[in-house]
Amino acid sequence: MPYISRDSEGQISAIFRDANVTASEFVPLNAPELVSFMGIPANTELFHSLDSDLIRVIEDVIDALIRKNLLLLTDLPAEAQTKILARRNLRQSLPQGTSILSPNDGLI
Question: Domain locations in the chain?
Fold first, then answer.
């Protein structure tokens, strides 16, 4: 997804999940013309950025609670433990000074 069909002026006229006779052109979900056609507000990218930042804050809060013995990792559901440990391992495997979110974020 998504495959599109265009009108006579070259503008997107329809979106399809699968390719078909009238829609064989694939476009990325974040293509500006597709985003515009679907009526998604332009600030959607800002929300994605804020979500990434919030995830980082939540990670840092969880780490602080664990360091202060206010929370045990095992207090969390198994799925949450797995995700936290996977992100922690990824962050630790990155070279010092490298960030997975933005150049201005530091690693814990």
Answer: 3-38, 44-93
Closest to 30 in 3D by CA, of 18, 42, 22: 42
**Closest by Cα among 28, 34, 2 to 16:** 2
pLDDT reported for residue 61: 93
3-class DSSP state of 89: helix
Task: Give residue-wise pLDDT tens across range 43-89.
Answer: 666 666 667 778 888 988 999 999 999 999 999 999 999 999 998 88
Show Cβ contacts of residue 69 under 8 Å, excluding neighbours closer than 6 positions.
none
Is the model's pLDDT at 108 over the cut of 60?
Answer: no
Identity of the amino acid at 6: R
DSSP string, 37-79: HHT--TTHHHHHHHHHHHHHHHHHHHHHHHHTTS--GGGS-HH
pTM value? 0.46
Nearest 5 degrees, angle CA 102-CA 105-CA 108? 130
